[in-house]
Amino acid sequence: MPKANNAVASKARRKRVLKKAKGFWGSRGNVLTVVKHAVDKAEQYAYRDRRVKKRTFRSLWIMRINAAARLNGTTYSRLMDAMLKQNLEIDRKALAEIAVSDSAAFTKIVQAVIK
Q: Is 104 helix (H, G, I), strand (E, B) or coil?
């Protein structure tokens, strides 16, 4: 009895992996055994970096707030402490956006909080 191949499923599986490797350099983009490893590693990096992205953005917001706070004669930590004591809850993302786009409003916030 001849061996039965499920060529349709096999080709679809290969095609799916090769499609994920589109744009990869050299054999990482067209040799199936190499592509499998490259795609697996790329997916690991993607999973990890979705979490790292959140840390990176938070650190960027803190840098922006600190720079704007220093222009107003205080520091990031003093500003956040004063905001906490006054129960003024503006998240870092919004505060950083205000600091970058509307410095006058940020100055008013600093003056209202720090007396």
A: helix
Query: Region 28-37: what's the mean pLDDT?
Result: 95
The CA distances from residue 47 to 41, 42, 54, 74, in Å, are 10, 9, 12, 38
Alpha-helix runs per DSSP H in the chain: 7-20, 32-71, 76-85, 92-101, 103-113
Query: pLDDT per residue over 44-98, tens digit each?
Result: 999 999 999 999 999 999 999 999 999 999 999 999 999 999 999 999 999 999 9
Phi, psi of 96 (to 5 degrees): -65, -40
Torsion of CA 16, 18, 22, 24, to 10 degrees: 140
Cβ atoms of residues 64 and 99 within 8 Å: yes
| Dihedral over alpha carbons 77, 80, 85, 89 (to 10 degrees) | -170
